[in-house]
Specification:
The protein is of the alpha/beta class. The protein is 32% helix and 16% strand. It has 2 domains: 251 residues, Rossmann fold, CATH 3.40.50.720; 279 residues, no CATH class. Helix 2 runs parallel beside helix 3 and helix 4 runs parallel beside helix 5.
Length: 582
C-alpha cells in the first residue's frame, strides 16, 4: 500500500470476516476491492505463512503454492522441516523460500517482511498461523509459561497484523487462525483460550478500522461457501486440504459451525458416559419391558382359561352334564379309579377331534405293563391351551412304571375345582386313597367332580349359587416350597400320566382337580405338601394372584389377599353364601 492515497482508499474499503470452521476458527482481513472474481488464481501473489514448517502451516504453504502463490515459509527453530516443505513445493513446480523469524519479536517480524519483499518484491497475503498450545489450569500455569504463550499467540499475531497493514500490496489479505476453543470454556484451556480470544478481537477491531463492506458484497461469499472449496468451512468437507478464498470477503460476518472437525471417533470419557446412560436406560426400561411381557402372558393365560370354560359349556350342551374326572376302569376296586380325566373329554371341543376319535375309552389307561394304546396316542398329543405361558414348570414329563417302555406326556397347569373343604362339611369328605391318606381329602360340592362310588356327574342345574359366583377351573402353574424346604412342582397333576388318566397308581380321578382347603399360594403345611395332592393350593407365576374361570366361562384374577371365606364360598356351588366383591 506504501502510504499512497490510493492505498489508503483501498485500506478504508477493506473487509474482515471470522469463520468458525470444522477444524478451527479463521479470522480473515481482506484488503481488496469488491469486484474480485471467484475464479481468480493466486499467480503473482506473495504469501507469508508464519509457523509454516509443519502441521497446518505446512499444508497451508503447499496449498497456496499449488494455487500459484510465491510462498515464504516462516519457521522459528526447525530449519530442516521448513526446508522439506520448500522442497516439496518446488518438486511440484511451485516457488517457495524458508525464512527464520521469531514472531514474538517485532524486530524479527519486520525482518520477515523485509526478506519477502527482497525476494519477491512485495507481500500480498499474511497467514498468522504460528502458535503454541498450553493445557494447564490457571493455578498450575507459571509466569514464564504465560508470558511465552502471550508473546507467541497474541503479540506475534499483533506484530504481523501491524506490519501487514503497513506493507501489504493492493488486493492483499490478512488471515489469522484462531480456535473455537476460545468459546468453550474448558478446564485446563483457560490461558490458551484467552490468547485465541484476543486474536478474534484484534481481527474484528482491525476490520472496523479499515472499513465495513456493502450488502452486495455478500454474494461472492455465498457462492464460495456453496462451492466445493467452501465445504471444509461449512463442515461438509471430506478431509479437504486447506483452501483460501480467492475473493473479496465482504462485511463483518460470524459463521458458527461445530467447534472442531466432525470426529470419526470418541474419547474414553464419552464412551463411559454413553455406557452409563445406556445402563440407566436399561435399568428404567427392563422392568417396564418385563411387566409388559408378563401382562401379555397373563392375557394369553386368561384366553386359555376362557377357551376351557367355553369347552366345558359346549360339553354340557352336548351331553347335558358337566365333564367329570375318570370312571371306574374295568377290574377296578373300590375308589381306585383309573379312567380318562376331564381333560380328555375337552379335546373334541378344543379342535382335537382326530386324537379323541382314536381312544378306546373302555380300554387300558394305565402303564402297568408298559405304554397302553391310549398312552401311545397321548404321547403324541400337545394342547397349548392346557398350559400357562408364564409357568416355569416343565410342560412334558416321562411316564414309566416298568422296563417295558415309557412315554412322554404333557402335564397341564390348570385344575378343575371339586369344591370347598370347609363349607362342604366333614360328612362329604372322601379319602382319595384308602392306602395313603397323604393324598388329602376331596369334597364334591364344586363343579368338576369325579365319578366313583360316592359321587355322580352333575349338570348346571346343580349350581344353585349361580354360575357367576362359582369357580370352575383355576391355576397350579408355579413351584412352591413344602414344609421341609423342598422345591416341588405344585400341581395336582404332578404325576405325569394323570393329566390324562394314565396313572399307574390309584386315584386318577383325584388328579387335575383340587378341593380348596388352603389360601392362594400357601407354602408348606402337612396337607399341602404332597405333589398331586387333592388339596394342593391354587398358585400361579403371575405376580399377586391366580386366574380362574367361573361357571359362566368368564375369567377373573383373584388376588392372593382375597378373604378366605370368599375363596371357599366361590369353590362351593350350593352353600348359599352371599359373597362380597372379589
Amino acid at each position: 500500500m506504501g502510504g499512497s492515497p490510493d492505498g489508503h482508499r483501498l485500506a478504508a474499503a477493506a473487509r474482515q470476516s471470522t469463520f468458525n470452521a470444522a477444524h478451527g476458527q479463521f479470522s480473515v482481513t481482506n484488503l481488496t476491492g469488491r469486484k474480485a472474481s471467484l475464479m481468480r488464481k493466486l499467480e503473482g501473489k506473495t504469501a507469508i505463512v508464519t509457523g509454516g514448517s509443519r502441521g497446518i502451516g505446512a499444508n497451508i504453504c503447499e496449498c497456496l503454492a499449488a494455487a500459484g502463490a510465491q510462498v515464504v515459509v516462516n519457521y522459528a527453530h526447525n530449519e530442516q522441516a521448513a526446508a522439506e516443505v520448500v522442497e516439496r513445493i518446488e518438486a511440484s513446480g511451485g516457488i517457495a523460500v524458508a525464512v527464520q523469524a521469531d514472531v514474538s519479536s517485532s524486530t524479527d517480524v519486520a525482518r520477515l517482511f523485509d526478506a519477502a519483499e527482497e525476494k519477491f518484491g512485495k507481500v500480498d497475503v499474511l497467514v498468522n498461523n504460528a502458535g503454541i498450545v498450553h493445557y494447564k489450569t490457571i493455578e498450575e500455569t507459571t509466569d514464564e509459561e504465560f508470558a511465552k504463550l502471550m508473546a507467541t499467540n497474541v503479540s506475534g499475531v499483533f506484530y504481523g497484523m501491524r506490519e501487514a497493514s503497513r506493507r501489504l500490496a493492493d488486493g492483499g489479505r490478512i488471515i489469522s487462525i484462531s480456535s473455537s476453543a476460545a468459546r468453550m470454556f474448558l478446564p485446563t484451556y483457560g490461558p490458551y483460550c484467552a490468547t485465541k480470544g484476543a486474536i478474534e478481537q484484534l481481527s474484528r477491531s482491525l476490520a472496523k478500522e479499515l472499513g465495513l463492506g456493502e450488502p452486495e458484497d455478500m454474494g461472492p461469499v455465498i457462492v464460495f461457501l456453496a462451492s466445493s472449496d467452501g465445504g471444509w468451512i461449512t463442515g461438509q468437507g471430506d478431509s479437504l486440504p486447506l483452501r483460501l478464498p480467492p475473493l473479496s470477503l465482504p462485511l463483518e460476518m460470524l459463521l458458527m459451525s461445530v467447534p472442531f472437525r466432525s470426529r470419526r471417533g470418541f474419547t474414553l470419557v464419552e464412551l463411559l458416559v454413553v455406557i452409563a446412560i445406556i445402563g440407566v436406560l436399561i435399568a428404567l426400561l427392563l422392568p417396564a419391558v418385563q411387566q409388559a411381557r408378563e401382562a401379555a402372558r397373563r392375557m394369553q393365560c386368561t384366553n386359555h382359561l376362557k377357551q376351557l370354560g367355553l369347552a366345558i359349556h359346549n360339553y354340557h350342551d352336548t351331553y347335558g352334564k358337566l365333564p367329570y374326572n375318570a370312571v371306574p376302569q374295568l377290574g377296578s376296586v373300590g375308589d381306585r379309579q383309573r379312567g380318562p380325566s376331564w381333560f380328555v373329554r375337552m379335546l373334541p371341543f378344543m379342535e382335537q377331534n382326530a386324537a379323541y376319535d382314536q381312544f378306546e375309552f373302555a380300554g387300558d389307561w394305565t402303564m402297568q405293563d408298559g405304554p397302553s394304546p391310549n398312552a401311545a396316542i397321548l404321547g403324541q398329543l400337545r394342547v397349548p391351551g392346557f398350559n400357562c405361558p408364564s409357568s416355569p414348570l416343565p410342560e412334558v414329563e416321562t411316564q414309566s412304571t416298568n422296563a417295558n417302555g415309557s412315554v412322554d406326556l404333557q402335564v397341564a397347569n390348570y385344575v378343575g375345582i371339586t369344591g370347598s373343604y370347609f363349607q362342604g362339611g366333614t360328612t362329604s369328605v372322601v379319602s382319595t386313597s384308602p392306602q395313603d391318606s397323604s393324598y388329602g381329602d376331596a369334597v364334591y360340592n364344586g363343579m368338576i367332580v369325579p365319578i366313583n362310588s360316592k359321587s355322580r356327574a352333575i349338570g348346571l342345574e346343580a349350581v344353585t349359587d349361580g354360575t357367576s359366583n362359582t369357580m370352575m377351573v383355576s391355576e397350579q402353574s408355579d413351584y412352591f416350597y413344602n414344609a421341609s424346604g423342598t422345591k416341588i412342582a405344585r400341581r395336582s397333576s404332578g404325576h405325569a400320566g394323570r393329566t390324562w388318566g394314565n396313572g399307574g397308581g390309584a386315584g386318577t380321578w383325584t388328579s387335575n382337580v383340587t378341593t380348596v382347603r388352603y389360601a392362594i399360594a400357601t407354602e408348606g403345611g402337612t396337607g399341602n405338601a404332597a405333589n398331586y395332592n387333592v388339596n394342593v393350593a391354587l398358585i400361579s407365576a403371575h405376580p399377586g394372584g391366580v386366574n380362574l374361570a367361573l361357571g359362566d366361562a368368564s375369567v377373573r384374577f383373584l388376588a392372593e389377599t382375597i378373604d378366605f371365606a370368599i375363596l371357599t364360598g366361590l369353590a362351593d356351588r350350593q352353600d348359599g353364601a352371599v359373597l362380597g366383591e372379589f
